[in-house]
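R.M. (postdoc): so does anyone remember the format we settled on? I'll just put the structure tokens first.
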């Protein structure tokens, strides 16, 4: 427990270090370029808020703030960015709180001294700034972000990037019951060759060769999925056309993305074995990898449960990889044991209790809870007879399934005990790849291009709300640092983020670096500065839009911290129903 309490703040500190490094390096690019080109630099600060340390050296005020969120550089000769970077001393007289103004001419920018009683007196003229100087200083920030991405990519090339089996495979590990994929005819073990007419070679990621991304990015009523299937030793190429579904969400939540109900093949890796469970009795140990059950591939733990349901037997055999050898273990599932009975559910009203063992349903033996759930779903809202063992006694209960609130399938309101006793490693087996720096940077660039392309398409289900802001990025870093090989994953993610930071800042939008470059080019073409009042209005408007967008994204990002990933079913309270008159 103590180690856990220490681990959390240390992980959070790691996140802050990496996140701040990206922003500070970006601002350092502007600072060094301004120094090189001879621009006036008023301030260079690390972190925001009230300074805990500051010192003026050669006319530049260096500071260290109290809010650990990046840094800034104040350059009065560049286009004003008061809304984002704060008011500079050179422009302080422009505000409504004083009568002092910044005088702007074609050749130079004049700053005025702020005094309470004396009239305006020029403090000193700032030297003129050429278009080239402005472009170089503005471009230096994205350039340094890009160079940092290359540095991270080089580290990834040296130490390697962990790639999970689930990300790299193209084999279907499990098809969810009643899903679009199941209805179309896709099966566990199918190897996917193409999705929506595009060849694929991995399950995860955001590239055009990713199964998941091609499903999300599809726009048609159906998604053609071509697979390779081996039946009785004969390999066939088949094409199916599942109709994607979008899970309904609340109005205030992010809209769900397209899916067809398939999971990638990933041989289950044991993270923990629950004492006294079937896995414990079978002799499974942490780090064991399940390869086969009764000689059939164990693509996922869900697929193993599906096999047990479809092949009821007193015992099964598991082929397990333990370090470098494969061993065979006998395995007997626990059966259908009730873990929890939901309040106001048909099972609760019918008398079922936690700890009960369901022996049979309508006189038919059931190997596990999954088989019982399938049976209830197939029989609709018809009364079902349950044979239950409670302690040494065996009793019968008749229960009529009901449709829970916000659901469409009849259920009885039971949650089942884990029939295996295996806590699965979420990341599974890794392989360490060493992609070249250019390949990694290119992959990062394509991720932002793919995202922008999806958002721009009117038929796409990907919207602005699906983008992530600083909160999401910090959450991803936190998750990486908490996992096995987390520091390698964090290095890889830093490549993607720095490339994105560089490209987004080059967009020709006022208040971004690309906006500075655009304004410098316009001034060069017009041979005179852009009207100051017009510039203030445009930049303030754009700043308001960008800040509003960041708050909009943060609204959804915050929900990831507090919104549960799965909604527990619930039934209408019987107490709310009107009482029936008794005669």
């Amino acid at each position: 427990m103590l180690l856990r309490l220490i681990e959390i703040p240390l992980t959070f500190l790691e996140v802050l270090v990496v996140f701040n490094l990206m922003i500070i390096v970006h601002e350092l690019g502007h600072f060094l370029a301004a120094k090189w080109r001879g621009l006036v630099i008023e301030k260079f600060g690390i972190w925001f808020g009230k300074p805990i340390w500051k010192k003026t050296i050669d006319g530049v005020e260096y500071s260290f703030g109290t809010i650990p969120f990046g840094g800034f550089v104040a350059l009065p000769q560049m286009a004003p960015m008061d809304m984002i970077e704060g008011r500079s001393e050179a422009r302080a007289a422009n505000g409504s709180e004083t009568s002092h103004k910044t005088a702007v001419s074609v050749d130079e920018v004049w700053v005025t001294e702020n005094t309470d009683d004396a009239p305006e007196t020029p403090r000193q003229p700032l030297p003129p700034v050429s278009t080239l100087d402005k472009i170089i200083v503005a471009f230096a920030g994205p350039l340094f972000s890009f160079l940092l991405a290359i540095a991270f990519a080089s580290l990834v090339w040296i130490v390697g990037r962990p790639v999970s089996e689930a990300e790299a495979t193209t084999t279907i590990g499990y098809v969810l019951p009643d899903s679009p994929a199941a209805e179309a005819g896709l099966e566990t073990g199918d190897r996917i060759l193409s999705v929506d007419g595009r060849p694929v070679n991995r399950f995860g990621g955001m590239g055009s060769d990713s199964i998941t991304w091609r499903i999300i990015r599809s726009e048609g009523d159906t998604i053609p999925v071509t697979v390779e299937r081996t039946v009785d030793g004969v390999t066939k190429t088949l094409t199916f056309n599942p109709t994607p579904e979008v899970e309904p969400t609340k109005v205030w939540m992010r809209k769900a993305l397209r899916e067809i109900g398939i999971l990638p093949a990933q041989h289950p890796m044991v993270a923990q074995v629950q004492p006294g469970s079937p896995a414990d009795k079978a002799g499974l140990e942490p780090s064991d990898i399940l390869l086969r059950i009764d000689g059939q591939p164990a693509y996922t733990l869900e697929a193993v449960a599906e096999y047990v349901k479809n092949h009821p037997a007193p015992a099964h055999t598991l082929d397990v990889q333990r370090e470098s050898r494969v061993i065979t273990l006998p395995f007997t599932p626990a059966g259908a044991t009730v873990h929890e009975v939901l309040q106001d559910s048909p099972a609760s009203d019918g008398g079922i209790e936690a700890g009960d063992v369901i022996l049979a349903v309508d006189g038919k033996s059931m190997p596990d809870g999954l088989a019982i759930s399938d049976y209830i779903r197939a029989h609709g809202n018809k009364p079902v007879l349950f044979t239950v063992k409670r302690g040494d006694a065996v009793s019968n209960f008749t229960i009529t399934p009901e449709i829970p609130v916000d659901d469409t399938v009849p259920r009885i309101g039971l949650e089942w005990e884990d029939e295996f006793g295996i806590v699965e490693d979420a990341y599974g087996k890794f392989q360490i790849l060493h992609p070249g720096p250019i390949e990694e940077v290119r992959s990062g660039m394509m991720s932002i291009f793919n995202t922008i392309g999806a958002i721009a398409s009117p038929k796409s289900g990907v919207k602005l709300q699906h983008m992530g802001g600083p909160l999401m990025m910090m959450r991803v870093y936190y998750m990486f640092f908490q996992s096995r090989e987390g520091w390698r994953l964090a290095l890889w993610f830093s490549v993607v983020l720095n490339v994105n930071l560089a490209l987004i800042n080059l967009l020709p939008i006022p208040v971004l670096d690309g906006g500075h470059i655009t304004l410098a080019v316009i001034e060069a073409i017009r041979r005179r500065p852009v009207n100051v009042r017009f510039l203030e209005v445009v930049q303030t408007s754009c700043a308001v839009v960008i800040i509003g967008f960041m708050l909009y994204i943060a609204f959804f990002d915050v929900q990831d911290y507090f919104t549960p990933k799965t909604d527990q079913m619930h039934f209408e309270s019987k107490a709310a129903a009107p009482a029936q008159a008794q005669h």
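R.M.: ...and that's the designed sequence above, right after the tokens. Also worth knowing: The radius of gyration is 31 Å. The chain has 15 helices and 27 strands.
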